Amino acid sequence: MSLLVPLYVHPAEDPGAWHRLITAADLTYGVVLNPASGPGTAPDPAFAAAAEALRAAGALLLGYVDTDYGTRDPDLVLAEFRLHREWYGVDGCFLDQVTSTSVDLPACRRLVRRVRRAGARAVVLNPGVQPAPGYTRLADLTVTFEGPWSTYVSAFTRPPKAGKPGKEPADRLCHLVYGVPEALVPLAVRTAAERGAAVCGPVTGELPNPWAALSPALTGKER
């Protein structure tokens, strides 16, 4: 099991969290860089320094770009990814709030192709739900669940179809779960694996920003 880590807190606000993330880089699938719901309007030296340290530690860096469920101009999405590349040297792109319906699949496919041509060696899609067939083949990793622990523990009576043997490989699926009681973080990791996702991101935080702190699975409390 490896961890996808969206850490949406400024390095100057919680330098300890960033330091712990850097030291635990070997446990991560990738780290999502999100200076300002995207790359921001100018380079941020603190994020640039964190990105450099993470890269030196061997982490895969993913620049955050919101697609707003396909309503944002693809040119703008592409421009923001290019800024991530220029300012922070990211390896790939985390496309948030992507579409999940079959009718929107062709547009998503075109966007992923453009992002790859712009230099992304890894693309992560986050529809946050189980998407229509075809989406998981577009990306290196697809987040097929994002939501609270209370929903996650009751969401499936059996593994989702895409996670069944013979369907999508587990290493291409991810579950992001927030509001996990700290003592149950190991259970959340095991549950993701049982449901066919080899990558997960269980955090104890709650809305509006559950990703402001590291998962106990990375901090050493549950290692």
Unreliable residue stretches:
157-166
Number of strands: 8
Describe the sheet with the most strands. 8 strands, parallel, barrel
Count of helical stretches: 7
> In percent, how much strand structure appears in the residues?
15-25%
Look at the structure and give the mean pLDDT.
Answer: 93
Large-scale geometry: globular
| Largest sheet, spatial ordering of strands | 1-2-3-4-5-6-7-8
Helix content: 25-40%
Q: What sequence of helices (H) and strands (E) makes up the elements?
A: EHEHEHEHEEHEHEH
Structural class: alpha/beta
Indicate the topology:
Blueprint: E1 2-6, H1 15-23, E2 28-33, H2 45-56, E3 61-66, H3 74-88, E4 92-96, H4 105-117, E5 122-126, E6 141-148, H5 149-155, E7 173-178, H6 185-194, E8 199-202, H7 216-219
Describe the structure.
There is one protein chain. The chain is of the alpha/beta class. Helices cover 31% and strands 20% of the residues. The longest helix is centred in the middle third of the chain and has 15 residues, at 74-88. The radius of gyration is 16 Å and the shape is globular.
In short:
By secondary structure, the protein is α/β, with parallel strands linked by helices. It is built from seven helices and eight strands. The relative contact order is 0.15.
Tags for this model:
223 residues, eight-stranded parallel beta barrel, 7 helices, 8 strands, globular
